Known about the structure:
Layout: H1 5-26, E1 32-40, E2 47-52, H2 53-57, H3 62-65, E3 74-77, H4 79-90, H5 101-124, H6 132-135, E4 138-144, H7 150-157, H8 162-170
Parallel strand pairs: 1-4
Antiparallel strand pairs: 1-2, 2-3
Amino acid sequence: MIPTEADLADALTTATRAAVTELFRDNPGHTFYYVTLTTPGEAFGPALSAWSHEALAQRPDAEDVRYSYADSPFSVVGEEHLKPVREMFAARPEVFDIADDDASDAEFDLRLRAIETALRRSADEGLFGVGEARENVLVLAEVVPEDEENVARARRLNPPGPALDAWLAYWGLA
């Protein structure tokens, strides 16, 4: 059976909750400011990456890697939780194997909506903090390399505040 958008969002919400909880628990001396689920342009099942202020302070190239999922010491974490979800994504038709452009775009959008829904649910549960603490954690559903919709998703997923403002300024979008 092909997983529905709701199936993907539900499984990814559970996996994200487990992976992020584990990340925060296993790194008590870190203040995380960036948590992202990334996927390539094919919209495969996502991987989790994060940055903390403490990890960034150890980097001589901090300004260059501040929002780089790949350069973080917390890149591709929580795999035991996310791998089964990626298998669910793989059970759906591959975006670039769909001949009809509209159907391909619809599949891509469905996958990104599931990722965004999982992050929104997790944020609503307080996984990334509440109030001022939440305003200091940037949560992203990123298509990498850069995708024009990353900014719109960031604005939908994050409350106005220092984390979102800093990210928008970093990319010259503030």
